[in-house]
Specification:
Elements: H1 36-54, H2 59-65, H3 70-98, H4 100-119, H5 124-152, H6 156-183, H7 189-208, H8 223-227, H9 231-258, H10 266-294, H11 297-317, H12 322-350, H13 355-383, H14 388-406, H15 421-432
Transmembrane segments: 37-55, 75-96, 103-120, 132-154, 161-185, 191-211, 232-254, 266-288, 300-318, 324-343, 364-384, 390-407
Organism: Cryobacterium adonitolivorans
Protein name: MFS transporter
Length: 433
Amino acid sequence: MSRRAAPATVSSASAAPTAAAPAPDASAASILHQPTAVWAVAFACVIAFMGIGLVDPILPAIAADLAATPTETEMLFTSYLLITGIAMFFTSWLSSRIGAKRTLLIGLALIVAFALAAGLSQDVESIIGFRAGWGLGNALFISTALATIVGAAAGGTSSAIILYEAALGLGIAIGPLLGGLLGSISWRGPFFGSATLMAVGFIAIVVLLKTEGPQPVPTRLSAPFRALARPGLGILAGAALFYNIGFFVLLAYTPFALVPLGLGSAVNLGLVFFGWGLSLAVTSVWVAPLLTRRMRRSRVLWLVLPLLALDLAAAGLLIGSATGLVGCVIVGGLLLGVLNTVLTESVMEATDLPRSVASSAYSGVRFLGGAIAPPAATLLADHFSSATPFYAAAAAVLVALLVIVLGHRHLARADGAVEDPLEEAEAIAVGDS
């Protein structure tokens, strides 16, 4: 197997809007020295990712005020993530025809509309439906934003991914905090707050993302599905599906586990998950690059995935301790930050596919994993014990590890090397068939 460095190819299909500027040397470029267009998209990403954790602190309040069961309330996550995952498969097809900027703006507009509608709802079923519409807008925005940042950022793919994951971590950190503060007034507050902030993001994209860049080559509707036939991308997507089960059990189920421990108020939950998201942001930006400079990306996954499984198992063992469970949440954030960044970097480098296609395929699969976790967790808690969802999440993360370990020979390119030319040609043929 050849160990030469993989070329960082970016096809015209993934060309993203960027301010016209000479490309800086990748080794010299700082992650902070980015075109204005990149900062505009990153800012909107922060707001978009706030939507994931925004409802976390108000889940118990919604359940109480609208007479909903925990499982019904968890469907606010499932409808959002399910539609996000399904729609992700088609975002590259749309963005390659109407352009990245229009796709981003349509996504933001949908989020504003459905967040407002959710805030005005009178029953949990309506909120579940409007969260699904929110998920559609989220899919259009997030998948296109990732490809846009990767294509436009200075400093190469790794710097772009770190910036994207920093936006994810910051958004996920601020989301619960804002949700807790606004939720202490009314559970409707976070929805109205999110709609307002997304409107600001919409304006930022309109004003600061001034160019469309080169006209992208339209991709086939089936491109993301065929992309999953590429061994490297398929393995990473499969691992991410199970990994995201662990991610969303920690995010979506833990608020209900904290209620009996006296931490069920919107403000308390907001503070807990602010710490979680802040931990995630810190390791995304500083720890993940430190590790990937010293070992292969696949080896980082081999190291950190079992640590996450142990953390989730510890959460199950410490289910009766508020201090212990909060500690597991914070440690989980630290581990998730590393895993998010390394998995996303690996996906962007695993194939020679356009960035938008790879992003759509991978994101679609991983969000489907997230959609399964929240209601499954509450059902497991109802039928067995409140600790069972954490043990199940730990098992899912170990499955993700097993997928990575068994498929490691197909991850050479993701690790910074290209496969043997014959193997690479066969993989491309399978993906294009």
